[in-house]
Amino acid sequence: MKKAGLIICLLLLIGCKSKTISRDTEDLKIKKISGSEINTNQQQKAYELGKRVLETCNTSKFKPFNDTEVTASVRENTTEERLTKTCQRFRQYYGSFIDLKLDGVYKTKQEVVYRYHALYTKKVANKELRVFVNQDNLISAIKSMDWDEKFDAKLTEQ
Prior knowledge:
Layout: H1 2-15, E1 31-32, H2 40-59, H3 72-77, H4 80-94, E2 97-107, E3 111-120, E4 127-134, E5 139-146
Antiparallel strand pairs: 1-2, 2-3, 3-4, 4-5
Helix pairs in contact: 2-4
């Protein structure tokens, strides 16, 4: 009986092996862009849209994105209801939003990532905002996370 249980366990382990996904390593390469390589129009767009999202916490008014600014998935996920819920938490812990300070610009094969340090009135606030711009010059993602001095490229993967 014990042998049968052991054999069944071994068969289950063999049957549950994980799939390997082949991925082009070029997709994972991330390089920091120097000041001269940065598209200033794209940088301004990323800053304005990132700031517009975070200023919603101060004003409680959100101007919805249009299809010339963001991708459809960002437009669908960035609703006033979701922002209000997030903003309540942010205001409680971090105070009022002040501004965004650009920390770096990173490029992958398919996107440019603008990394901002989000500044708030409370000193305990140490947040980061990443704005992802795709090849069509549309914002493809906006992510808020805790600030880390070291840029973690793993957090850029969608």
